[in-house]
């Protein structure tokens, strides 16, 4: 019999569960960190995990991601970008679960984090010093997020989200190096960033041990322009 709106039976088909996971990065003490929660319950009780959970039937994916992030960590009002969909069989011992992962960069001092009833702790971890094993397939999700973050530096202004309103070019270079995990040539970096037209020089300086450091700001009216390209691989220091 041909199916119609009147005869369609949804119970004929198996329905996997859907979750969302949110990978949040920030810079603390000039080092790249990721936000993790420690699970209180089975499965993976006591393991650290990326914040996330099951979607509700009446909400969109991004609505679910924002809700889970706020409930589990206290982090709110951040721009989320969809990262990837993870759906390997057996990735979750509870049932057949497909997870849609999101990624975001935030300023750590702009958010007050807290643990929920579902977790025993929430903490920023340096990307260079993560727990030995994360829950579920979250090691794979995090590795993919870091790789995606690095590739996006070549054609977006994502790194600027970690900066204060006024900053030095050296601070911007350090953010790029923290995300990329390697040192860049100072002269090439300065030249490319200045030629991009993304920065506006101010008359303000910051006092330091040597000469005062000139401060710059991000020229936001150019944030959406597509011609920004930064091929950082060309600026690696020879080793």
Number of domains: 2
Rg result? 21 Å
How big a fraction of the residues is strand?
25-35%
Write down how many β-strands occur, each being a DSSP E stretch of 2 or more residues: 9
* Shape estimate: elongated
Strand count, sense and closure of the main sheet? 7 strands, mixed
User: Can you count the helices?
Assistant: 4
The class by helix and strand makeup works out as: alpha+beta
Descriptive notes:
The chain is α+β, with helices and mostly antiparallel strands and 239 residues long. The protein folds into 2 domains: 17-153, Alpha-Beta Complex (Nucleoside Triphosphate Pyrophosphohydrolase), CATH 3.90.79.10; 156-237, Winged helix-like DNA-binding domain superfamily/Winged helix DNA-binding domain (Arc Repressor Mutant, subunit A), CATH 1.10.10. It is built from 4 helices and 9 strands, in the order E-E-E-E-H-E-E-E-H-H-H-E-E. It has helices at residues 61-73, 138-152, 169-180, 186-195; strands at 17-28, 31-39, 48-49, 52-54, 81-86, 97-105, 119-126, 199-206, 213-218. The strands form 2 sheets. Strands 1, 2, 3, 4, 5, 6 and 7 form a 7-stranded mixed β-sheet that branches. Strands 8-9 form a two-stranded antiparallel ribbon.
């Amino acid at each position: 019999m041909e199916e119609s709106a009147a005869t369609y039976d949804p119970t004929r088909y198996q329905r996997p569960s859907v979750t969302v996971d949110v990978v949040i990065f920030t810079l603390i003490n000039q080092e790249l960190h990721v936000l993790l929660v420690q699970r209180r319950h089975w499965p993976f009780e006591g393991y650290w995990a990326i914040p996330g959970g099951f979607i509700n039937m009446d909400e969109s994916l991004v609505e679910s991601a924002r809700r889970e992030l706020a409930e589990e960590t206290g982090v709110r009002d951040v721009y989320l970008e969809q990262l990837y969909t993870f759906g390997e069989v057996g990735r979750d011992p509870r049932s057949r679960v497909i997870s849609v992962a999101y990624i975001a960069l935030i300023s750590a001092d702009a958010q007050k984090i807290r643990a929920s009833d579902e977790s025993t702790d929430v903490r920023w971890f340096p990307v260079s010093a993560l727990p030995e094993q994360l829950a579920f397939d979250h090691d794979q999700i995090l590795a993919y997020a870091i790789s995606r973050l690095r590739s996006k530096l070549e054609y977006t202004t994502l790194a600027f989200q970690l900066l204060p309103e006024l900053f030095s070019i050296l601070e911007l270079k350090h953010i790029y190096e923290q995300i990329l995990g390697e040192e860049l040539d100072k002269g090439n970096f300065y030249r490319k960033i200045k030629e991009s037209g993304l920065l506006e020089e101010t008359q303000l300086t910051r006092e330091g041990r040597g000469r005062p450091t000139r401060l710059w700001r991000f020229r936001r009216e150019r944030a959406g322009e597509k011609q920004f390209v930064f091929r950082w691989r060309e600026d690696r220091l020879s080793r």
